[in-house]
Amino acid sequence: MSVMGCSGTAPRSNAPRESESASASASPSASASTSPSPGALTEPGADRRLGETATVEWSPKDGVDGKISITVARLESTSYKQTFSGWKLDEATLARAPYFVRATIKNDGDTDLGGYDAPLWGLDGEGNLVEAAAFKEPFKPCDGKALPKPFAPGATANVCLVMLVPDQGKLVGVSFRPYEEFDPITWEGDLTPYAAPKASAKPSPSASPSS
């Protein structure tokens, strides 16, 4: 099995380019300290702490208009030795530092959003955006980049994204930035070390090494 690396997907055609500067998110927003009313949209440029929610309008592709609430729960630090055993990793991948982002997304609109990738980008210590990695096979430590099918109005899903930060950099936050001109909404907080789930009575086998 191998990592496909960081690649765009069709539903995110208006997304910003990877490693583009996200310096706009560093400026505090007047809305950041305001408690929004339930269902109200979060203003662009707002800053959020881990565990806090932002409600946004989101169009993953032309003709698909949705509204979602995003709660980023944790930023997890890990290592290739700890969580990528059995995977073929090229030199370009090994030059990056792996992190996991865990979030909860609720469909607050009227449109089924099933199958689209969670619209979140990593943010490194240099202010660059990092796109979530794609995999050819399920990746058990952090599987669930895409929203389930169906993802009907009122549905809630837990997602996990793998961020591979260039030059062994540090993940410091997560950004919602659906298109380049959008003033991003950003979550920042402390890293949590990855902890493997406790084994059940009959643990399932881990990913098989590639032949």
Structural description of this entry:
This protein has 211 residues and is mainly β. It has two helices and twelve strands, in the order ββββααββββββββ. The chain has helices at 80-83, 91-94, and strands spanning 3-6, 47-49, 53-61, 64-77, 97-107, 121-124, 129-130, 133-135, 156-165, 171-176, 185-188, 191-193. The protein is globular, with a radius of gyration of 17 Å. 33% of the residues are buried.
Q: What are the SSEs and their pairings?
A:
Elements: E1 3-6, E2 47-49, E3 53-61, E4 64-77, H1 80-83, H2 91-94, E5 97-107, E6 121-124, E7 129-130, E8 133-135, E9 156-165, E10 171-176, E11 185-188, E12 191-193
In short:
The protein is mainly β and 211 residues long.
Structural descriptors:
single chain; 211 residues; mainly beta; five-stranded mixed β-sheet; 2 helices
Mean pLDDT: 83
Order of helices and strands: EEEEHHEEEEEEEE
- The tally of beta strands, per DSSP, is 12
Strand order of the largest sheet: 2-11-10-6-7
Number of helices: 2
Q: Which percent range fits the helix content? A: under 10%
The fraction of residues in strands falls at 25-35%
Distance between the termini: 8 Å
Low-confidence stretches: 6-14, 19-35, 203-211
Radius of gyration using CA atoms only: 17 Å
